[in-house]
Amino acid sequence: MISTKPFYSKRFGQHFLHNQSTIKRIIQLIDLQTNDVVVEIGPGGAALTKHLLPQVNWLTAIEIDKNWYHFLQENLGNHYPQLHLYHADVLEFDFASVQYPELSRIRLVGNLAYNIATPLLFRLINYRNIFYDWNVMLQKEVVDRLVASPGSRIYGRLSVMMQYYCKIKRLLTVPAGAFTPPPKVNSAFITLQPLHPLPHQAMNEVLFAQIVQAAFHQRRKMITNSLSRFNMTVDLFESCDINPKARAETLSVADYVRITNTLVKTLPEAQNSMQ
Alpha carbon of 162 to those of 100, 121, 125: distances in Å? Predict the structure, then answer.
């Protein structure tokens, strides 16, 4: 057993949970079943891991910091046969490469470093058919954007893309003092459950993502101008019940899907218009 824990790394943006009441509440909110499979991102000093391990028969943990990886391996690896520990960068990790137990819900859990949260969420979209849900701690500001509604000043590309693919629910707000070292901002614990089937299905999801990105790149412009490169005419906007003078932040997920599907149906060449 190792008695001394490694130092916290600024490089990896490490802020580890230490408040026990918060940790216990998070474990309650996740509500694990024995046959659930947990994939934990950034276990660090095992604040969550040691509570998760007794509840499941399989836990895959991915840790980028080699010092914490060795700490976990020596302190937990030899005592919990259900722990499968990987030393890897989660932004490069292939979740599909793991041989998970069959007929189990695969549930992602993580206290995410703020600097990787958004790119990781977008990356997880590619693995949405693997996971039952994603239960993650994020910067509160990011969570506010994730759950924002059309018309809000913080509603944006992240809101539309994640709400297209997932049902999102804020579960708990966590103050900075619950972490060591404390971050400069508050955090929030949230669950995202991939939607099957999608309530609003884009006929071309690559085009859908391009349209959303283009719209919010020039969010203060009228949608006819911000999407001009897609050759969307006033008549086409009106045909899908979209006000041509609307701005990006006023359109719902369903609105962006209708724009996408209208383009696919009427202007197939628009699929290649954003190079």
Answer: 25, 8, 8
| Region label for 88, one of left (φ > 0), alpha (ψ between -120 and 50) or beta (otherwise) | beta
Check whether the bond before 81 is cis (ω within 30° of 0). no
Q: Which residues contact 91 (CB under 8 A, 6 or more apart)?
A: 116, 119, 120, 123
Give the global pTM. Answer: 0.91
Pick the last residue of a domain from 194, 221, 246: 194
CATH code of the domain in which 236 resides: 1.10.8.100
Instruction: Check whether residue 173 and residue 48 sit in a common domain.
Output: yes
Range of the domain at 190: 16-194
Q: Quick one: CA torsion of 9, 91, 153, 196, rounded to 10 degrees?
A: -140
DSSP of 84-110, one letter per residue? EEEES-TTT--GGGS-PPTT--EEEEE
Residues 68 and 168 in one domain: yes
- Count of domains in the chain? 2
Structure tokens at 178: 């619950």
Query: From first to last of its 275 residues, what are the pLDDT tens digits of the chain?
Result: 444 665 555 554 567 899 999 999 999 999 999 899 999 999 988 999 999 999 999 999 999 999 999 999 999 987 899 999 999 999 999 999 999 998 899 999 999 888 899 999 999 999 999 999 999 999 999 999 999 999 999 999 999 999 999 999 999 999 999 998 888 999 999 999 999 999 999 999 999 999 999 999 988 899 999 999 998 889 999 999 999 999 999 999 999 999 999 999 887 665 554 44
Answer yes or no: is 255 within a domain.
Answer: yes
CATH number assigned to the domain comprising residue 161 = 3.40.50.150
Contacts of 210 (CB under 8 A, 6+ apart): 274
**Pair 162, 244 in one domain:** no
| C-alpha count within 13 angstroms, C-beta hemisphere, residue 184 | 2
